Amino acid sequence: MKVIPVSKAKAQFSGIARRVVKTKEPVTISTPAGYVQLIPWDLPAIVEPLPSGSVRMTAEEVRLANRFGETFGEEKA
Fold first, then answer.
1. Contact at 8 Å (CB) between 25 and 18?
2. In whole angstroms, what is the distance from residue 48 CA to residue 6 CA?
3. Residue 6: per-residue pLDDT
4. Which pLDDT value is given to residue 38?
5. pTM of the model as a whole
6. Which helix (H) or strand (E) holds 16?
7. Distance CA 2, CA 27 (A)
8. Across the chain, what does the average pLDDT equal?
9. Paired residues of 30 in beta bridges
10. Can you give the residue ranges of every domain in the chain?
């Protein structure tokens, strides 16, 4: 893993960031207070919301969902 000083990272940030994204190799930056790491990160695929009304709950699922934190044990009469 490559470690560079903060002064070099500040001066060449855009080039360092492009290289991290291109090569997928992280870079560690040493600062007086500790270390910072630049790592590549891919956003997950966007999942479109389902059309309204396409998912239906059974009466039992609705009853259990509306219990506001009560236990799922037997109900008290």
1. no
2. 41
3. 94
4. 94
5. 0.53
6. helix 13-23
7. 5
8. 86
9. 5, 35
10. 2-38
2-38, CATH topology level: YefM-like fold (3.40.1620)
Query: The tokens of 67 are what?
Result: 């219990």
pLDDT for 77 beyond 60: no
Name the 3-class secondary structure at 70.
coil
Position 67: which residue type? Answer: R
Q: Spell out the residues 6+ positions from residue 28 whose beta carbon is closer than 8 angstroms to its own.
A: 1, 2, 3, 4, 35, 36, 37, 38
Residue 52's pLDDT band, with cuts at 50, 70 and 90, is: confident
- Provide the 10 A C-beta neighbour count for residue 38: 19
Q: What is the mean predicted confidence (pLDDT) over 16-33? A: 94
CB-based contacts of 6, cutoff 8 Å, min separation 6: 29, 30, 31, 32, 36
Q: Please name the amino acid found at residue 76.
A: K
